[in-house]
Amino acid sequence: MKKTVLILGAGFGGLELAAQLSDTLADLHVILIDHNDGFTFGFSKLDVLFTNRTPEDVRIPYAELTRPGVEFRQERITSIDPATRRVVTDQSDYQPDFLVIALGADYEPEATPGFTEDGYDFYTVDGAARLRDRLAEFTSGTIVLGVLSVPFKCPPAPYEAVLLLHAHLVERGIRDAVTIKVISPMPSPIPVSPETSEALITAMAERCIIYRPETKIHSLDPNQHLAHTDTDTEPYDLFIGIPKHRVPDVIDASGLTAGGNDGWIAVDPATLATKHAGVYAIGDCADAPVPRAGVYAEDAAGTVAAHIAAQLHGTPFTAKYSGRGVCYIEFGDGRVGKVDADFLSGSKPTAPFIGPSTDLADEKAEFAVTRRHRWFGRSAS
């Protein structure tokens, strides 16, 4: 009888794990569950924000997933019992041989008082579309982009957004009428890569974008349009925030976060296994020592696939999670930079930077094409 692997969440990590198991273990039944009906690359939200692409344009329907041995089911997860590997959804009840939790992170905008009333975000497709419509009517004033909590998905994203915003306003002929500010509690944009941070800080300075690191925004005053920081207040006409991240409620209720830092799922950093037999966590929901980004979830999927294979074949597991990932960074004007990070393979993290170019923009586009083909069996449109 075939063993069953149940994967909760069809993002970067879940899709990559399903693909790897499909490729290497023909004697498995892989069930992939997500409450959404399609996948969207995180960087496609910037396309919705700054180009004419619609949410539907960037969505890849899960119905296109045709991997052998992989069954996708659109269901909402209602409970997880990690001790017994029992998962209940709005349609069924599961108790697989292996359970992999790849549910990502949810957002908690209400954690920053005033943000839900007077702020915008681009970390959801709907949020990006809403902000796009607001920008269309914006003609002058101050735009503040604030990182409201750490950690958050895709650390370069706030800086990509303001560089693309600059280009957008230049194209509209109103850049001189707009002040752009970035406020972050972090000491630099990408602390693990001083080269990348320097490039982003230089790019912002060249575009007259004001950058305030090591500054925490505590709340917004919707009536006065003021952002209250730990030292002062910042007036704004448009506030864009990166909301606080947290695990989905169903994970919080499962007890899986016990022992994890700041409410994330505790895992063995070498294998991504939890303390419960046959249960793993990968991606944004896991308390692994890497940034929250799809490429690290993709790398984690390879580790979990190898660990499952070793158990099924009765062979030693010698590999360990490397925490490697390539991040493409939009600098505007059709140019893209790249940071190639390795957090766990060596004695300390390394993250060399390659400066922005149109060649890297082509490479980023090819990255999306190859992932779509690998996961869904067809090319990106």
UniProtKB/TrEMBL annotation:
Record keywords, A-Z: Oxidoreductase
Protein name: Sulfide dehydrogenase [flavocytochrome c] flavoprotein chain
EC numbers on record: 1.8.2.3
Domain annotation FAD/NAD(P)-binding: ranges: 4-289
Uppermost EC category: oxidoreductase
Annotated GO MF terms: sulfide dehydrogenase activity
UniProt cross-references to InterPro entries, sorted A to Z: FAD/NAD-bd_sf (IPR036188), FAD/NAD-binding_dom (IPR023753), SQRD (IPR052541)
SUPFAM superfamilies: FAD/NAD(P)-binding domain
Gene: fccB_1
Membrane-spanning residues: none
The keyword Oxidoreductase is annotated on this UniProt entry: yes
